[in-house]
Design goal:
The structure holds two protein chains of two kinds. Chain A has ten helices and no strands. By secondary structure, chain A is mainly α. The termini of chain A are far apart. By secondary structure, chain B is mostly helical. Chain B is built from five helices and no strands. Chain B has helices at about 5-15, 20-30, 35-50, 60-85, 95-140. In chain B, helix 1 crosses helix 2 (about 20-30). The N and C termini of chain B lie far apart (about 155 Å). Classes of the chains: A mainly alpha, B mainly alpha.
Amino acid sequence: MSAKLYNQLIIPAADGMYRYALSIVHEPETARDVVQDCLAKIWSIRHDLAKIEKANAWAFRIVRNRCIEMLRRDRYADLDEKVVNLQFSGSADQQAINDDQMSWLYDVLETLPAKQREVFHLREVEELSYQEIAETCNLNESDVKVNIHRARKKVKDAMQKIEAYGIAN
Amino acid sequence: MESPIERLIEKYWNGETTLDEEKKVKQYFKTNPALSLESEYFRFLKKKQSIKFDQKVKKNSKRTWLSAAATVTIGLITALLVLQEAKDPYAIDDPQKALEEAKKALMMIGSGLNDGQSYAMELNKINKAKEELKEEDSEAL
């Protein structure tokens, strides 16, 4: 039964878990390690899966915690600090997407604070509800809404600048 | 007058859309691709969604090659060593010749032993003479 639940709830979430991990650690190999670790951990506690209400958000939270652990282990004291300080080259994502035309979007996302970028990813790519995002990131729902709105506004502003002057910044 | 989809898109940028409405906006841009930046943005999100978790990791491909190369090298060295050991440079294939060689070798050992024995006989003689002298000495005392 628990193995069945694992296959039903967790395996389909693995792609999203990987993308989320990648959005935090930026390295495909590290993101893969994170997901492997999380899948192993979830498998070991699969008997508790029946009690979990929102498996998606729950699995994402496990991914987030593991990412923070990994980043801390790499002597980065704080996730936000790490993500802010990290040169968001987007190389990993760019490799996956491989589209030069979209470089302006990477430039815009680079300027977003870590929290905004994280919330933006969970909403726009993983299509999580405000409540699920709030649970995943330890925020309240209104914070999530505000962060998503700000992130979108920055993207929209950049678009308008490009349309008006040909450059984003 | 704004069309319903335009209103929805505006709502989206203001951060006021529900998940379902956002899906509608995304669907609209998917079915109506344009050369606009807005369209590009939604294509970007779509592409991000297409990134998959690949369990059959390619990350160790370098390591796999190295370990394969190491295995082959070890295998070759072992095979070479085994073959060399099997091929004794002093081996004689012809049994007749081998018998003669063996006899020769045994004769050599035999003659060596004989030589040794003759030296031992001489030593015995000397020892006997020494004993006799000792006995004579003690008698004289």
